[in-house]
Each structure stands twice: as C-alpha cells, then as structure tokens.
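User: Hey, my collaborator sent me this sequence without any context and asked if I could get a structure. I don't really work with proteins. Can you help?
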Amino acid sequence: MIKIFDKNLSKALVESKALSQIEIDKHVKSIESTDESLDSYLVRRGILEKQQILSAMEMKFGLKTVDLQRIKIDQAAVNQIPVKFAWYYKFMPIQIKDKILTIAASAPLDIKTQDEIRVNLGYKPNLYLACEMDVLDSLKKYYGLAADMVDQILTKQPSKKLSVRDADRWVEDLEEKSSDASIAKLVNQIILEAYRKRATDIHIEPYRNKVRFRYRIDGELIDANLPTDVKHFILPILSRIKIMANLSIVEKRIPQDGSAVVKTQEQTLDLRVSTIPTPQGESMVIRILPTKVMNFRLGELGLDPKNVKIFRNLIVQPHGVIFVTGPTGSGKTTTLYACLNEVNSIQRKIITIEDPVEYEMENVTQIQVNPKVGLTFAAGLRSVLRHDPDIIMVGEVRDLETAEIAIRTALTGHLVFSTLHTNDAASGITRLIEMNVEPYLVSSSIEAFVAQRLVRVICSKCKAEVSCPEKVKKEIAQDLQISNPEEIKVFQGRGCDRCNNTGFYGRTAIYEILLMNDKIRSAILEEPRADVIKKIAIENGMQVLRQDGWQKVLQGVTTPAEVMNVTSREDSKLDDRSKEANVSVESEKSRNRKYELIAEDAVKEKKDFNARAYPRLDEELRIDYRLFQSESRVLSSVKSESWQSTQTKNIGAGGALLESDVPIPIGSVIEMKLALGETDASAVECLARVSRVEKDAKGTHYNIVIYFLDISSADRARLSNHVKTKTNLSE
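Assistant: No problem. I've predicted the 3D structure and written it out in structure-token form, which is a compact way to encode the shape of the chain:
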C-alpha cells in the first residue's frame, strides 16, 4: 500500500509537471513491495534531482523546504527532544530559539501532532518540509542507528539492563531473550544498514563499560553510530547472531566460526560469523558475502587496455599456473573470478576449491574447503583431477603439498589459477621456493605472477581538483617519465553524505604483471632472488604497482596518498647498470645451457644433487623411460614414442642419477618406470624432469639427474623405505 508521503509527493510532482501521471504510476508500482520511499527511489535512480522534489513539495503545500544534508543542525536541540518522540512522529529537530522548535518533516503536521509537541515538549513547532529519506538519515546520524529500537527495549524492560561484565547472570536466560522480537529486529537493522552502506564486515568489540560497533567500508573501519545504550543488550545481541549462525550460545571460552543466510529485498546474503574470547566478553566479526551470481569482467577491475590484453592472452593458455599475489583483502579472488568469467563456456569444465566460496558462478563447480572433515586444498585438488577438468582455481596455496599438486596439475595439461600472500609479483617466486618447491618446477610450470592492491576511488559527487606537493609531482613525473611535472593534476573528494564524508566511494585495483620468459626462468635456476628477478622483469617492460597507481592518479580515479599507502617506493630504472648487464649475461648463459651438450666441469648447480633432503643409495636398478615433453630439438636420438632402457647409479625418494648413451636436454620431462621388484606391478611409474646433464669420466656416456614430478605418496614412501633398508643392511 502506498504511504501518505509518497501519495502527496506523487500529486506534487504531477502538478509541478516534473513527471507525468503515467511515469509516476510506473515508479510507484516499482516501490509498492519495498520499504523504499518514492523520493529515495527517484534520486537513487537519477530520475530527479533532490532540489526538484523539494521545489514540488514547496509549491504543493505552501511551506518552506530545507535540505537537511546542507544545513547545520543544533546538537542542543537534538539533546532536548526525546528519541522516541522524534522517531514516532518522524521529524528532525533543527534548532530551539525563544521557545520555538524548528523541525523538518516529510509532510505537514496535523493539529493533533502540533498539540502533542506543545503539551509534551513545551515548544511551538516551526515546520519545514524535507525529503523523507533525509529525515530518516538525519535521525540515524544524530540519534544513532536503531536508537528508537534501543529506547523501546529499555522502556519495555528497564530492569533487564546489563553491563558487559554481568555475563554470568544471563547463562540460563540468554536464548529466551535472544528470541525476543525487539532484539531480533535490532540485529536485523544493524546487518541491513551495513549492507546498504556497502560494508564488507561488521565488527562488534566489547570494552570496559562500552561496546563498539564498526563497519568496514572500502577497506576502512567506520563507526556504526549506534546509541551508547546498546551496551546493555550486547549479550542478547551476540546470542541472537550465534543462534542465526548455529553456534553454541553458552560457549564463551574458545573461538567459534559459523555461517548464516539472510535475505534483503535485493538479494540473499551469506554471513560468515567468527567469535573470539576477550577479558571483557566475546568479540565478533561478521563477514557479509553477497550470494548473487558474480559477473565481473576483466575490463571492470581497473586494468588498463594494455594489461587487459596481457591478461586475456594469459588465460587462454592451454596449461600452466597463473598466480595472483597480494595481502588479505586486496581483491585477489575477485580478479580470479573475473578470469573465470572470461573463459567460462559450455565447452570447458571449470572447478574451483575455495575457502570460503565468496560468489556463486554459473556453470562452474565450486567446492568449499572443510578442514574439520579433512577436505583441505590439497585433498580437494587430488579429487578434482578425477573429474576431468580443463581449468582449476585453487583459492590459496598455503603449503608445499598444495603447491606441488597445483604445479603437477599444470604439467599434465591443465590451466590452474591460484593466489599467494606476497608483497609483489617477484616475491611469489621466492615464496614458492621457500616452501621447498624446486626452482626448476617453478620456472617450467608457471606462466605469470600478478600482484595487486586495492585503492579507494574518489567520490564523484564531491570530487575537486586540489594542490599537490612538489615532491609528489616530481616522483610521479620521474616514475612515468613525464617531462613537465607542472602539468600533473591531482583530485580529491571533499566529503559528502554519499561517501560518509570520507571523500571516497568504492575501490579499484592496481596491478603488476610479471610474465615468465627465458631470462626470468634462467634467473630462477641461477639466483632465485626477488630483487634480481624484479630488475629483469622491469628491464623487459614490467610496470610496477606504484607506476600503475600513478596512472590512476593522473586519470582522476584516486589520490596520491592512496597509492603511497598501499605501495612502496620503486625505481622504474635499474640502480646498477653494470650489475644488470652481468645478470642478463649470466641468465642468457644459463638459458643456453638447456640446448647444448654439457661438459663434465661445465655445470655447477647451487643445489647439488648430493645435498637433497631425502636419503640416497648407490644402486643399479633398471629404469625404462621415454621423452614426454622437451624444450629442445637439438637431439633426434631420443624419440618420444620409443622406450629406452638404462640403469640408475644413485636413487632416492626425490629423484635419481641414471646413465645414458645420449644426452637429454635439461628441462625435458620424461615418462619413467623404475623397477623396485621383480614384477612390473612393483615398478614406480611417474613423470620426471631432467635437471642436470654431464659427461662421465671416460667421456663416452652421460650422467643424467632427474627429479620426480607426480610421484604418488605411496611410491615415494616405498622408495624411501627401500633406501633405508638397503643402507641399514650395508652397515
């Protein structure tokens, strides 16, 4: 049913010819099933400006109008008027002067309401008209969110006030109070307001004699502006949320995690609830995840046209691993979802393993990690391979096992997307090596590392050009090679109600894309240091995070302070030219060694075979192999289709040293069968990569070092036990 204010406003807009009767009827029908007011709907959709609505109301009712967002409201007047009175009659006190109370309401007050104000408050009302959405927003701003609800509960149950420290008295009565309609409505209002303000998290933090509610909006924590009396109901509020999330309401000594699903008029929300015990009570964080189908595209993430093209070239690769790196909350998962949207089609089978599943995606099989029942990233990834996927997304690589399986998956012809927690793209390489992933696996299987950060976007409503310090201008000009720093223009938001007076509305991403090439692959094998690899990447044209951020500053998207907050100072030019040249030459030599026959004393690996983590044994065992994949066409002696037989010289659970009549190019992948027993059933079968080749002492044969790639845990354990048993017998 249409509200009185909307009915009056409809007539006013038609009479002022701002909209036709047909248009008004259409808009009124759109809001019939919602709680949204007509003025809010028209302004939000950009159908009318607020001033047009105010002018129509002034003409209709013959009363002066006021824009509550632009005038100053006297806090003394707010303090004099009880919250229940203002909320009940839906008016906003503006000022009190000479026993005259100036108020703003969305419709003229009837005689009864005016008499109530005179009798109960002792003031003569002076009425101005304002938009209903402005009146309600002002009531929330000056009295606090859900202030009327808190006041009603206090009025209804004054004897039930509790401080944060009175927890023990509520143990037997918590569930009953949490099911009270007023508490339930209060919790719903807190969550709904967070969603409407685009918050990603709600923080509830108890302290001595107070409780703080905060929303995380655009990455920043902002006070939720609840009345101070809400501290008396913190225990039933927490219990109500626990019941929604299926958590124990009596357990306060240990952390708990749960989830709940709630509905708004627009969509369903997935709430992830987490609690931790503190000396003053339980602290709670609620993550808000929209379950609406996610349809981001790469062009909507903040990528410039050049980087969009690079990304699209990467995601159409038939196999390999693409890592997106950055700290928690930097938008890595959103970027991966956008990549999946780009390649999602009926011809491809896409499976994701996530913790948690943040967005629903059509035509994508999504798996939720559940460590409590043993469903980890590694366990899920092993099972996924049996479902014949074309593309796999792993939410995060946290350990060696997950990393090895992801790389093994890429080596067997799958495209894998995943994330790492590192500060920049080059550090992703060192992070994997620190996990004990072999450098040759990193260099051969990964296609790119993409680092990203989120920066806040300047609010378009209050955006204005501002002066910029000369030092910052010079840095921007130096990093982007701009000849005249004075031409640089910087913008900033002045703050308005739309952006909560922060000057920012929404966020966008800045990127750093490190593409793997021969020089970088060689550097990984020679000297896997992040600074060395980063210098090579910059030499090859990589744009670092800060440079991409400066581009957003020049476009008026964000501010220099935002870019400097999330990035470190980077030099786009290499500091030491001679060192750079030396690194490049050495890297080139390393790359060329893959394609030439290597003399006995030409290879000196940093990680020598004799320094492996697994025990080794000098033993001659039969090994059959054939070429599976090679990066070189130098030798035709090794035919990929034919099996070759030879013997091992040294074996371990991680690899083997074997003898061959012909060399095999370094980096080649071979398919092998190692005989551990007398029957074929006892043979160890897996893929292996050639990492080292050298001539023997006589110069007639080649010693070839291989490392096992996709060996099963059972076969690795068999090899390890075999070596230990033989070693003990020989001793």
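In plain terms: The longest helix spans residues 713-730. You can pass these tokens on to your collaborator as they are.
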